[in-house]
Amino acid sequence: MRSRVELLLMETQARVCRALAQLDGAAAFSVDSWERQEGGGGISCVLQDGNIFEKAGVNVSVVFGHLSEEAAQQMRSRGKTLKTKDGSKQWWFGGGTDLTPTYLNQEDAVHFHKTLKEACDKYGPELYPKYKKWCDNYFYIKHRGERRGIGGIFFDDLDSPSKEEVFQFVQSCAEAIVPCYIPIVKKHCHDSFSPEEKLWQQLRRGRYVEFNLVYDRGTKFGLATPGSRIESILMSLPLTARWEYMHSPPENSKEAEILEVLRNPKDWVH
């Protein structure tokens, strides 16, 4: 199963990189293969200063070895332990994807969530609502009272009903990444924007940075793991972001519209 999961991740990485590079048409991904002295390695693919994408990154890490006490504590904090009475191996799957737009477009939100729902519905109608709510709760910036974006799906510690069934579900979700996202980029890649809209984007990027550095499990786990590759862990951060003291958007503005959704998540599909 481990080799099948590795292959799935590699194939998904290649598929996403190919779709992004074809759409950008100018920049190419730099491909950086690396090894971890303590065990494992990965491939980091980064496209920067392109025709459409300011920065895009698609990473795969396959690591193994002994956990530091801090990394182990990250697992214990969510009720996960690697000890079993009979010495059997433990396994579980986790994953997720969310959309973090600067401005709200209802049609885009519906498309993104509908595509993910279709991927989940193949394995049970109860999965999408459950993992959509999980996503809204996970990407919550507590000190701001806002979500990072307009949600998607998120799940962790999945270890039932069986390895094969969970793997098939994860594969379905992975195959939905390109069709849920690329059409939105194609639709808007030539949109114009004002300096005021660019400023709002920079402020929203600041919120993205806050979540990733303060709350994100993967970032915290990676930084606590001996021999971790810092460049790959922090690759998701934007090239530029902005913080302004006591900034608040005008009432009934486009900025206030998305802020309302970030504070009070919506059900985009039923």
Automatic annotation (TrEMBL):
InterPro entries: Coprogen_oxidase_aer, Coprogen_oxidase_aer_sf, Coprogen_oxidase_CS
GO cellular component: cytoplasm
UniProt pathway annotation: Porphyrin-containing compound metabolism; protoporphyrin-IX biosynthesis; protoporphyrinogen-IX from coproporphyrinogen-III (O2 route): step 1/1
Enzyme class, first EC level, given as a word: oxidoreductase
This protein's UniProt keywords: Oxidoreductase, Porphyrin biosynthesis
GO annotation, biological process: protoporphyrinogen IX biosynthetic process
Family according to the record: Belongs to the aerobic coproporphyrinogen-III oxidase family.
Keyword Oxidoreductase: yes
UniProt KW Oxidoreductase keyword: yes
Gene Ontology molecular functions: coproporphyrinogen oxidase activity
Gene it is expressed from: CPOX
Name recorded for this polypeptide: coproporphyrinogen oxidase
Gene3D superfamilies per record: Coproporphyrinogen III oxidase, aerobic
